[in-house]
Amino acid sequence: ASTLGASAAEKGRYFGAAVAANHLGESQYATVLNREFNSVTPENEMKWDATEPSRGTFNYANADRIVNHAISQGMKVRGHALAWHSQQPGWAQSLSGSTLRSAMLNHVTQVATYYRGKIHSWDVVNEAFADGSSGARRDSNLQRTGNDWIEAAFRAARAADPGAKLCYNDYNTDDANAAKTRAVYAMVQDFKARGVPIDCVGFQSHFNGQSPVPGNYQQNLAQFAALGVDVQITELDIEGSGTAQANSYRSVVNACLAVSRCTGITVWGIPDHYSWRSGGTPLLFNSSYAKKPAYDAVLTAL
Ligand code: XIL
Protein backbone atom coordinates (compact mmCIF):
# COMPACT_ATOMS: atom_id res chain seq x y z
CA ALA A 1 0.00 0.00 0.00
CA SER A 2 1.08 3.58 -0.50
CA THR A 3 0.48 5.05 2.96
CA LEU A 4 1.73 4.19 6.46
CA GLY A 5 -1.70 3.37 7.84
CA ALA A 6 -2.83 1.22 4.92
CA SER A 7 0.48 -0.66 4.84
CA ALA A 8 0.36 -1.32 8.57
CA ALA A 9 -3.25 -2.47 8.25
CA GLU A 10 -2.18 -5.07 5.69
CA LYS A 11 0.03 -6.46 8.46
CA GLY A 12 -2.82 -6.38 10.98
CA ARG A 13 -1.41 -3.33 12.74
CA TYR A 14 -2.06 0.38 13.08
CA PHE A 15 0.26 3.29 12.36
CA GLY A 16 -0.57 6.37 14.41
CA ALA A 17 0.55 9.88 15.21
CA ALA A 18 0.35 12.13 18.24
CA VAL A 19 -2.00 14.95 17.33
CA ALA A 20 -2.56 18.42 18.78
CA ALA A 21 -6.11 19.79 18.61
CA ASN A 22 -4.92 23.29 17.76
CA HIS A 23 -3.36 22.06 14.49
CA LEU A 24 -6.39 20.18 13.16
CA GLY A 25 -7.60 23.26 11.32
CA GLU A 26 -4.37 23.57 9.32
CA SER A 27 -4.96 22.12 5.88
CA GLN A 28 -1.52 20.59 5.28
CA TYR A 29 -1.52 19.05 8.75
CA ALA A 30 -4.98 17.55 8.33
CA THR A 31 -4.22 16.35 4.81
CA VAL A 32 -1.15 14.38 5.90
CA LEU A 33 -2.85 13.11 9.06
CA ASN A 34 -5.87 11.85 7.15
CA ARG A 35 -3.84 10.35 4.32
CA GLU A 36 -1.12 8.55 6.28
CA PHE A 37 -2.36 7.55 9.72
CA ASN A 38 -5.07 5.25 11.03
CA SER A 39 -4.63 5.94 14.74
CA VAL A 40 -4.18 9.08 16.82
CA THR A 41 -2.98 9.88 20.32
CA PRO A 42 -3.92 13.28 21.78
CA GLU A 43 -0.51 14.79 22.56
CA ASN A 44 -1.67 16.74 25.63
CA GLU A 45 -5.46 17.04 25.54
CA MET A 46 -6.35 13.98 27.66
CA LYS A 47 -3.82 14.66 30.41
CA TRP A 48 -5.01 15.38 33.95
CA ASP A 49 -4.35 19.14 33.80
CA ALA A 50 -6.33 19.40 30.55
CA THR A 51 -9.31 17.22 31.49
CA GLU A 52 -9.84 18.15 35.16
CA PRO A 53 -8.58 21.73 35.56
CA SER A 54 -10.36 22.09 38.87
CA ARG A 55 -11.29 19.21 41.13
CA GLY A 56 -14.46 17.52 39.95
CA THR A 57 -14.89 19.83 36.93
CA PHE A 58 -14.10 18.11 33.66
CA ASN A 59 -13.28 19.70 30.31
CA TYR A 60 -13.20 17.43 27.30
CA ALA A 61 -13.51 20.08 24.57
CA ASN A 62 -10.04 19.77 23.05
CA ALA A 63 -9.82 16.01 23.49
CA ASP A 64 -13.23 15.68 21.86
CA ARG A 65 -12.04 17.61 18.82
CA ILE A 66 -9.38 14.95 18.28
CA VAL A 67 -11.63 11.99 19.11
CA ASN A 68 -14.39 13.24 16.80
CA HIS A 69 -11.89 13.84 14.01
CA ALA A 70 -10.55 10.32 14.44
CA ILE A 71 -14.00 8.74 14.47
CA SER A 72 -15.02 10.64 11.33
CA GLN A 73 -11.89 9.32 9.59
CA GLY A 74 -12.19 5.75 10.86
CA MET A 75 -9.05 6.06 12.97
CA LYS A 76 -8.36 4.36 16.28
CA VAL A 77 -7.70 6.49 19.38
CA ARG A 78 -5.02 5.79 21.98
CA GLY A 79 -5.95 7.48 25.25
CA HIS A 80 -3.03 9.20 26.97
CA ALA A 81 -2.66 9.33 29.98
CA LEU A 82 -4.88 8.71 33.01
CA ALA A 83 -2.39 8.68 35.89
CA TRP A 84 1.02 10.34 35.65
CA HIS A 85 3.31 12.36 37.91
CA SER A 86 3.63 15.11 35.27
CA GLN A 87 1.12 17.57 33.82
CA GLN A 88 -1.11 17.31 36.88
CA PRO A 89 -3.40 20.24 37.65
CA GLY A 90 -2.18 22.47 40.48
CA TRP A 91 -4.91 21.30 42.82
CA ALA A 92 -3.76 17.68 42.51
CA GLN A 93 -0.10 18.62 42.98
CA SER A 94 -1.03 20.04 46.36
CA LEU A 95 -2.82 16.88 47.56
CA SER A 96 -1.29 13.82 49.20
CA GLY A 97 -2.16 10.55 50.84
CA SER A 98 -5.67 9.13 50.71
CA THR A 99 -7.10 12.40 49.41
CA LEU A 100 -4.80 12.30 46.38
CA ARG A 101 -5.46 8.58 45.94
CA SER A 102 -9.21 9.17 45.82
CA ALA A 103 -8.84 12.10 43.46
CA MET A 104 -6.64 10.04 41.12
CA LEU A 105 -9.03 7.09 41.10
CA ASN A 106 -12.01 9.38 40.51
CA HIS A 107 -10.13 10.96 37.62
CA VAL A 108 -9.42 7.55 36.07
CA THR A 109 -13.05 6.52 36.49
CA GLN A 110 -14.54 9.73 35.14
CA VAL A 111 -12.34 10.07 32.06
CA ALA A 112 -12.42 6.38 31.12
CA THR A 113 -16.19 6.36 31.58
CA TYR A 114 -16.67 9.48 29.46
CA TYR A 115 -14.73 7.89 26.59
CA ARG A 116 -16.03 4.34 27.08
CA GLY A 117 -16.28 2.54 23.73
CA LYS A 118 -14.16 5.10 21.86
CA ILE A 119 -10.65 4.23 23.01
CA HIS A 120 -8.59 1.43 21.50
CA SER A 121 -5.93 1.49 24.23
CA TRP A 122 -5.49 3.59 27.37
CA ASP A 123 -2.15 4.54 28.85
CA VAL A 124 -3.52 3.99 32.34
CA VAL A 125 -0.25 4.72 34.11
CA ASN A 126 2.65 6.60 32.54
CA GLU A 127 6.31 6.71 33.63
CA ALA A 128 6.04 5.26 37.12
CA PHE A 129 9.59 3.86 37.31
CA ALA A 130 12.86 5.63 38.05
CA ASP A 131 15.71 5.97 35.58
CA GLY A 132 19.12 4.57 36.35
CA SER A 133 20.21 1.36 37.99
CA SER A 134 17.88 1.22 41.01
CA GLY A 135 14.93 -0.56 39.45
CA ALA A 136 12.80 1.42 41.91
CA ARG A 137 9.55 3.22 41.46
CA ARG A 138 9.87 6.89 40.59
CA ASP A 139 9.30 9.05 43.64
CA SER A 140 6.12 11.07 43.06
CA ASN A 141 3.07 12.26 44.90
CA LEU A 142 1.19 9.27 43.46
CA GLN A 143 3.86 6.78 44.54
CA ARG A 144 3.76 8.24 48.05
CA THR A 145 0.08 7.25 48.30
CA GLY A 146 1.23 3.61 48.44
CA ASN A 147 2.94 1.08 46.19
CA ASP A 148 -0.39 -0.34 45.04
CA TRP A 149 -1.47 2.89 43.32
CA ILE A 150 -0.69 1.45 39.89
CA GLU A 151 -2.87 -1.63 40.24
CA ALA A 152 -5.64 0.47 41.78
CA ALA A 153 -5.59 2.70 38.69
CA PHE A 154 -5.77 -0.33 36.37
CA ARG A 155 -8.72 -1.82 38.27
CA ALA A 156 -10.59 1.49 38.11
CA ALA A 157 -9.93 1.79 34.38
CA ARG A 158 -11.14 -1.75 33.70
CA ALA A 159 -14.36 -1.13 35.63
CA ALA A 160 -14.98 2.12 33.71
CA ASP A 161 -14.23 0.85 30.18
CA PRO A 162 -14.08 -2.95 29.93
CA GLY A 163 -13.53 -2.78 26.17
CA ALA A 164 -10.34 -0.73 26.12
CA LYS A 165 -6.92 -2.33 26.23
CA LEU A 166 -5.15 -1.10 29.34
CA CYS A 167 -1.46 -0.25 28.95
CA TYR A 168 1.46 0.62 31.19
CA ASN A 169 3.60 3.15 29.25
CA ASP A 170 7.19 4.28 29.85
CA TYR A 171 10.49 5.43 28.31
CA ASN A 172 14.02 4.03 28.70
CA THR A 173 12.49 0.57 28.82
CA ASP A 174 13.76 -0.39 25.35
CA ASP A 175 16.94 -2.22 26.39
CA ALA A 176 16.01 -5.74 27.45
CA ASN A 177 18.60 -5.79 30.23
CA ALA A 178 18.29 -2.30 31.72
CA ALA A 179 17.29 -2.13 35.38
CA LYS A 180 14.24 -0.02 34.57
CA THR A 181 13.13 -2.52 31.93
CA ARG A 182 13.60 -5.43 34.36
CA ALA A 183 11.54 -3.62 36.97
CA VAL A 184 8.62 -2.98 34.60
CA TYR A 185 8.87 -6.58 33.41
CA ALA A 186 8.62 -7.84 37.00
CA MET A 187 5.59 -5.64 37.64
CA VAL A 188 3.77 -6.91 34.54
CA GLN A 189 4.65 -10.50 35.42
CA ASP A 190 3.28 -9.95 38.94
CA PHE A 191 0.10 -8.29 37.63
CA LYS A 192 -0.55 -11.19 35.27
CA ALA A 193 0.06 -13.70 38.08
CA ARG A 194 -2.34 -11.91 40.44
CA GLY A 195 -5.03 -11.06 37.91
CA VAL A 196 -4.51 -7.31 37.93
CA PRO A 197 -6.09 -6.16 34.64
CA ILE A 198 -3.30 -5.20 32.23
CA ASP A 199 -3.40 -5.84 28.49
CA CYS A 200 -0.45 -4.02 26.99
CA VAL A 201 2.87 -2.35 27.55
CA GLY A 202 3.74 0.84 25.69
CA PHE A 203 7.33 1.62 24.77
CA GLN A 204 7.61 5.36 24.20
CA SER A 205 10.83 4.90 22.20
CA HIS A 206 12.18 8.44 22.19
CA PHE A 207 15.60 7.79 20.66
CA ASN A 208 18.64 10.01 20.13
CA GLY A 209 22.43 9.81 20.00
CA GLN A 210 22.72 9.10 23.74
CA SER A 211 19.83 6.65 23.58
CA PRO A 212 19.95 4.81 20.23
CA VAL A 213 17.71 1.90 19.31
CA PRO A 214 19.15 -0.95 21.41
CA GLY A 215 20.44 -4.04 19.60
CA ASN A 216 18.09 -6.17 21.69
CA TYR A 217 14.98 -4.03 21.05
CA GLN A 218 13.10 -6.80 19.21
CA GLN A 219 14.07 -9.32 21.89
CA ASN A 220 12.76 -6.88 24.48
CA LEU A 221 9.37 -6.53 22.79
CA ALA A 222 9.23 -10.31 22.51
CA GLN A 223 10.01 -10.93 26.19
CA PHE A 224 7.15 -8.65 27.26
CA ALA A 225 4.77 -10.22 24.73
CA ALA A 226 5.65 -13.62 26.16
CA LEU A 227 4.13 -12.48 29.47
CA GLY A 228 0.75 -12.43 27.73
CA VAL A 229 0.38 -8.73 26.92
CA ASP A 230 0.33 -6.83 23.67
CA VAL A 231 3.19 -4.43 23.09
CA GLN A 232 2.91 -1.10 21.31
CA ILE A 233 5.45 1.51 20.26
CA THR A 234 3.69 4.58 21.55
CA GLU A 235 5.74 7.78 21.14
CA LEU A 236 8.38 7.01 18.55
CA ASP A 237 10.76 9.74 17.49
CA ILE A 238 14.42 9.45 16.56
CA GLU A 239 16.82 12.39 16.46
CA GLY A 240 19.04 12.75 13.41
CA SER A 241 18.58 12.98 9.67
CA GLY A 242 19.17 11.25 6.38
CA THR A 243 20.24 7.65 6.06
CA ALA A 244 21.20 7.13 9.70
CA GLN A 245 17.80 8.24 10.90
CA ALA A 246 16.08 6.17 8.22
CA ASN A 247 18.01 3.06 9.26
CA SER A 248 17.00 3.51 12.89
CA TYR A 249 13.34 3.91 11.97
CA ARG A 250 13.57 0.80 9.78
CA SER A 251 14.97 -1.25 12.65
CA VAL A 252 12.09 -0.20 14.91
CA VAL A 253 9.47 -1.14 12.32
CA ASN A 254 11.16 -4.47 11.60
CA ALA A 255 11.29 -5.25 15.32
CA CYS A 256 7.57 -4.63 15.72
CA LEU A 257 6.67 -6.67 12.65
CA ALA A 258 8.75 -9.58 13.95
CA VAL A 259 6.71 -9.77 17.18
CA SER A 260 3.17 -10.93 16.53
CA ARG A 261 1.82 -9.19 19.63
CA CYS A 262 3.33 -5.84 18.60
CA THR A 263 0.03 -4.39 17.47
CA GLY A 264 0.96 -0.89 16.35
CA ILE A 265 3.36 2.03 16.14
CA THR A 266 2.68 5.69 16.96
CA VAL A 267 5.07 8.50 16.05
CA TRP A 268 5.11 11.47 18.41
CA GLY A 269 4.08 14.13 15.92
CA ILE A 270 3.75 14.67 12.18
CA PRO A 271 6.09 17.44 10.85
CA ASP A 272 9.44 18.14 12.51
CA HIS A 273 8.57 21.70 13.46
CA TYR A 274 5.74 20.53 15.73
CA SER A 275 7.89 18.01 17.59
CA TRP A 276 8.12 18.41 21.37
CA ARG A 277 11.88 18.24 20.83
CA SER A 278 12.15 21.85 19.81
CA GLY A 279 14.81 22.46 17.22
CA GLY A 280 15.09 18.75 16.53
CA THR A 281 14.18 16.83 13.38
CA PRO A 282 13.03 13.50 14.83
CA LEU A 283 9.89 12.82 12.76
CA LEU A 284 8.92 11.40 9.34
CA PHE A 285 7.92 14.66 7.62
CA ASN A 286 10.00 17.81 7.38
CA SER A 287 8.66 21.24 8.20
CA SER A 288 7.26 21.59 4.66
CA TYR A 289 5.43 18.26 5.09
CA ALA A 290 7.75 16.57 2.57
CA LYS A 291 8.44 12.88 3.17
CA LYS A 292 11.91 12.32 4.64
CA PRO A 293 14.19 9.33 3.97
CA ALA A 294 12.90 7.98 7.29
CA TYR A 295 9.37 7.98 5.87
CA ASP A 296 10.47 5.97 2.83
CA ALA A 297 12.30 3.50 5.05
CA VAL A 298 9.23 2.99 7.24
CA LEU A 299 6.85 2.60 4.31
CA THR A 300 9.16 0.11 2.62
CA ALA A 301 9.58 -1.91 5.81
CA LEU A 302 5.84 -2.08 6.49
C1 XIL B 1 4.95 15.91 25.77
C2 XIL B 1 4.25 16.73 24.72
O1 XIL B 1 4.69 16.29 23.44
C3 XIL B 1 4.56 18.20 24.90
O2 XIL B 1 3.77 18.99 24.03
C4 XIL B 1 4.30 18.62 26.36
O3 XIL B 1 4.72 19.96 26.54
C5 XIL B 1 5.01 17.72 27.32
O4 XIL B 1 4.64 16.37 27.08
N1 XIL B 1 6.37 11.30 27.43
C6 XIL B 1 4.99 11.33 27.36
C7 XIL B 1 4.32 12.43 26.63
O5 XIL B 1 4.35 10.38 27.82
O6 XIL B 1 3.07 12.77 27.20
C8 XIL B 1 5.18 13.64 26.52
O7 XIL B 1 4.52 14.58 25.68
C9 XIL B 1 6.56 13.29 26.00
C10 XIL B 1 7.25 12.32 26.93
UniProtKB/TrEMBL annotation:
It comes from the Bacteria. Residues 1-301 form the GH10 domain. The active site is at E235 (nucleophile). Belongs to the glycosyl hydrolase 10 (cellulase F) family. This is Beta-xylanase. It comes from Streptosporangium lutulentum.
